[in-house]
Structure formats: C-alpha cells, structure tokens
Amino acid sequence: MRTQITSAGMTDIHQVLADHHRYWGDRDLRSLHLLALVQEFGETCLVARAEDGIHGYIIGFVTPTGTGYVHLIATRDDTRGTGLGRRLYAAFADAAHRHGALRLKAITSLGNTGSIAFHRRLGFDAKTVDDYNGPGQAMVVFHRILPFDAVQP
Question: Using CA of residue 109, residue 112, residue 116, residue 121, what is the dihedral sign?
Fold first, then answer.
C-alpha cells in the first residue's frame, strides 16, 4: 500500500489519539501529544498517510538556534519494520533544514531500548544526561548533524 508523507493537521492528530494504542501499545503518551505544536509548527509535524489511515507520524519543530527537535515519532503496529520511521525522519530532516535547522535532536527515557537502538541506527549520538527532565530524571539525549542520510547502516 502506497504511503504519502504530508504535513499533519488537527484532524490527523485527533485520529492518532483515537488510535493511540496502535502506535504506543500499553504506554499512555496521549498527554505528550501537544496540539499546540501541530498548530504552530505544522510544516514540521508530519503524517504518513495511506488508504487505510495514518501509518505513522512525527511531531517536531525547529528551535531559534537551528536545532530540529523531534518531540514524538511513532509508526502504527502493522507498519513497523518497513522503514517508515526512517522515511519520516528523513522527511522531517528535510523540512527542518528548509526552516534553518543545522542539526537534529531527540530524547527518550533510559528504559526505551527500542528508541535508543532506532536512533543509533539512524546515526544519532546518544548520551545519558542526569537530571535532564528534573532532579533524578535522567534521559537519553540524541544529536545528529544535518544533512540526514536515510541510508545509514
């Protein structure tokens, strides 16, 4: 099935939230889906759309200092392992670069081994930063310089 990556709209995010379990399983991350990010940074919030719905999405923005920050990325349970996450990141990197980004950044929890492995496969450096999200709340912080080569090993 053909998937097209386009800018996300509010109806897309509402659909993602309605199907939350298809993207996140038992992890309830609905509170991280900040609708204001889609409203204000629509050109860097993307969805992968197909005839049978939204296969994946990425919510991100570009900071004033030239960092393309990925707040959330997810693929639907039946599309994992197809390279869609890599394609979403490549599309975000292109959009972020058009808006002045020189580098990419993302974060995850220490226990999210899937995200850590995924970002490393995409060529991100990963560093554990103590107290990143408050006292005693270490996070793994990913960095990567642009341009983005989606064909990294």
Answer: negative
Instruction: Give per-residue pLDDT as tens, 17-39.
Output: 999 999 999 999 999 999 999 99
3-state secondary structure of 61: strand
Distance CA 69, CA 65 (A): 11
Residue pair 30/72 in contact by the 8 Å Cβ criterion: no
How far, in Å, CA of 43 to CA of 92, rounded?
A: 9
Q: E strands within 1-152?
A: 4-7, 46-50, 53-62, 67-75, 103-108, 125-129, 139-145
Question: What does the angle CA 98 – CA 105 – CA 103 come to, to the nearest 5 degrees?
Answer: 40
Residue of 42, 16, 45 lying closest to 29 (CA atoms): 16
- Predicted TM-score (pTM) of the model is 0.92
- Note the maximum CA span of the chain: 46
Query: What pLDDT, in 10s, does the model give residues 67-87?
Result: 999 999 999 999 999 999 999
Cα–Cα distance measured from residue 36 to residue 50, given in angstroms and rounded to the nearest whole number:
25
The order of strands in the sheet holding 67-75 is: 4-7, 46-50, 53-62, 67-75, 103-108, 139-145, 125-129
